[in-house]
Structure formats: structure tokens, C-alpha cells
Amino acid sequence: MDEFNKEIQQIALKNPSEINGDLRDYFSLFQRADGSYKIVWEKNISTHIRHKVTAVVKKHYVTSTK
Q: How many Cβ atoms sit within 10 Å of the Cβ of residue 50?
């Protein structure tokens, strides 16, 4: 979880003009009953930031099925 938080902070540090406050305030992460995760965006933010956050979530929360 610490690595996840560090990567989210790095996204925020690299894009300060697009993020007002803490990036964690922009989204919530929920685990569904089937074990998958859903990102709910609480505030509007650019698509490329959404893609970066989604990639970090996949890296840390989605397990490989291979």
C-alpha cells in the first residue's frame, strides 16, 4: 500500500497545475463482491491523469490470471 501511495503522490507532483489539493481526494477505490476493483471519480480531472491513476491501480490491485 505504501508503494501505491508513493506512486499516486508522484503523479500529483509531476502534474501540479492540474491537481488542486490531494490527488486521493479525486477518486475512491471500491472492491466489488467478485474481487474486482472500481474507481469512482469524485472530482473532474483530465483524462491522462485518470489513465495514470488507473494504471497504478491495476499494477497494485489487479492480480495476473496467467
A: 15
- CA distances (Å), 22 to each of 11, 12, 25, 38, 53, in order? 11, 8, 6, 20, 13
For the stretch 13-47, pLDDT in tens is 999 999 998 999 999 999 999 988 999 999 999 99
| pTM of the entire predicted model | 0.86
Q: Using alpha carbons only, what angle is made at residue 9 by residues 40 and 33, rounded to the nearest 5 degrees?
A: 30
Lookup: cell for 14: 509531476
Our CA angle for 20, 54, 61, nearest 5°, is: 120
Q: Is the dihedral of CA 63, 30, 13, 43 positive or negative?
A: positive
26 closest CA partner among 14, 37, 47: 47
Q: For residue 15, what pLDDT is reported?
A: 93
